[in-house]
Design brief:
Blueprint: H1 8-50, H2 71-92, H3 97-123, H4 135-144, H5 146-180, H6 182-195, H7 204-207, H8 215-241, H9 245-253, H10 258-292, H11 301-310, H12 314-342
Helix pairs in contact: 1-2, 1-3, 2-3, 4-12, 5-6, 5-8, 5-10, 5-11, 8-10, 10-12, 11-12
Length: 352
Amino acid sequence: MSVNVADPASLNTQEEAPAAAPTNGRRSRPLVAVLAWAVATGVALTVHHLLPNQQELEKSWMDDLPAWKHPYPVLLEAGLALAVITAVVQQTWPTSRAWVGHYAPLFTGGAALLCVWDLLTLKLAVLPLPYFPGPDEVFGGMIDDRWLLLVSALHSLRLLFCGYFGGVVMGLVTGVCIGWFPRVRYWGMPILKFLGPVPATALVPLVMILPVRDFLFLSGAALIAFAVWFPVTMLTSSGISNVRLSYLDVARTLGAGRLYLIFRVAIPSALPNIFVGLFMGLGASFLTLIAAETLGVKAGVGWYIGMQKGAADYAKVYASLLIMAAFFSTLMSLLFKLRDRVLKWQKGVIKW
């Protein structure tokens, strides 16, 4: 029985041929993705310019501008130009293809979402005014009130930071004490279980009567601090009380004292739990911020939303919501960056 052995050169050719197709496919995917982004943006721009408006818009500062200079089409034109530039760059710079292949579909979806929004509101009037303005009116309202929105956003961030960091400090202190000291846990856990689940917004009537100067700002910060305090305390105490006994035994054997055990052993071991509490507290602070700004303050995004809602200017209400979402997402991303830096061994376990 004879066995025919193929030529080694032919074997190499046969082995390399299937691998060439996936490589070409991987190279073409970023180009296809960025072309889809350009097509979606071009379709949204065409729909906005060619279809007639069905909603009867109120007069605004944009009436004196030609249609192509309105904020929404300018945004689409910038997106289309960026898509074309990206298509050229990813062909000449191979290392950018992974980034383009990952993010281009997201831009495509964003352009498609804007097009659907424009169709349902301005072009077809399926969603009526004044409650559902189109993207052009929302972006125009954002530009019209840009300085007031900036001042309101800065005031909201100031209130958020004061309340959040105050709640974090109180939560870390009470969490460490409850988690480490049995006597504090005996008295502290019932109080924590009783007061913690109470919504911070339910305390508005109480904080309104605080007899202090600048009580409106301090009352809002106190509400946010209370909302942050409970999750930070609960997760910190859980992490401290569940530190491995072997870590503590080794440290005691080496002569470590109580402070060393708390600050150099227990707290570093509990950091994963602590960061979960920080994330939960940050989310709770976002929810409480709007309620905190209804206490009579004269600035802030929550105050701005209430003012524009009273004036039935919902375009500016949506504009402030977009700005708020951008700020909150940025703060959450920064906290995740801090977590990845502190807990390098857990980097990528929880992504944002």
